[in-house]
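Usage

Read records sequentially. Each one opens with the input sequence:
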Amino acid sequence: MNTGRFLIVLALLSGGPAALFAAEQAAPADPESLAKWQDMRFGMFIHWGPVSIKGTEIGWSRGREVPAAEYDQLPAQFNPVLFDAKEWVALAKETGMRYVTITSKHHDGFCIWDSEFTDFDMSATPFKRDILRELSDACRDAGLAFSTYHSILDWYQPDYNTIDAQGGPGYALPEGQTPSMDRYQEYLHNQLREIVTKYGPLQSMWFDGEWESPWTKERGWELLRFCRELDPKMLVNNRVGKGRQGMEGVTKEGFAPGDYDTPEQQVGAFNIDRPWETCMTICNQWAWKPEDRLKSLKECIDILVQTAGGGGNLLLNVGPMPDGRIEPRQVERLREIGAWMKTNGDTIYGTDGGPFRPGKWGCATHKGNTVFLHILKWPEKALVLPDPGQKVLSAAYRDGTKAKFKQNADGVTISLDKKQLDPLDTIVVLTLEPK
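and closes with the structure output:
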């Protein structure tokens, strides 16, 4: 365990204010689970469901691009006969990802398993198979951790009563019955218990959809306590409650339900005190869209490196096609990332961000006294860095070639050799004198 993780663990175990988990509201995260998750650094996000038939956005296109009544009938056509959980997991592993998170239920309310508590699930499809069962088993067989994304809001369920529901609920309540958030929360709890019991242990429960008015601060704390009871080792993100600030995903000061922050479609700000995970799409849309713009390999490496250099994890999303395959061009890009990770993964896994803050030139990760400078944009002459507070003993490129440097009271200056330029990421390794 590296120094940054150790300090977080100490804060959690001490129960001090630095832990930011409000122990009087809910038990803190399991320190070992949190540290293990942070060391993994890189995971696969999967947004998938019947909406892939339309190629529109999951949840959000209901009642917009696709009329709600038509959207809600898509499960009857959902027959992904080419789905192979082992292939998905093998691809994630080849990419260098160490955990997988899939949408168990998005805002549209469709459940990607056969739930005891609704018929709006895989039992309503011609496919019938239990996707969560197959994927969770494949992950564990391959040594990858498994997590589920679960939407708090549910525009299909009539007990989740909100004026924001796109297209209205998917069915009517019995005559004389009015919407009840208490009854909806019981439904939510029942499904979460079902997921954790049938497909656990889960590494994390990744909530979303907490921003609408039916969900309150109190219900968020209650849900976090419920998750702690289900599995004290299972992590929970900050979208369980009302503390998230916009797409930056940072938790409001003094209000920190959940164990980590969740910047969305952007690299989080440098933070080695509060755990965080950027979620980012490999294309533009979360769910599959034909001919959606695919990020270049350079963009993907920049995002991965900048996230690690800022102290965070990256959850990179793919949207499988309606036939169950991950789109071939996305597969190709992931394999390219995997080839880079095979050579350079040691500069990502198990590292902390810093000691140098990210800049226009790139960022740094470190393990103990070894610092990896990720130079993503070469400066014109030399790379000038602030004083790290320790003597630099050596500097070298990844092939072992020594890099010229000088250190004085103002900092460290590294003269860059253009022959060592890597268009993706030029890595210079600094060895610091032990403190």
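Summary fields computed downstream for this record:
- The domain at 3-351 is CATH 3.20.20.80 (TIM Barrel).
- DSSP finds nine helices and 17 strands in the chain.
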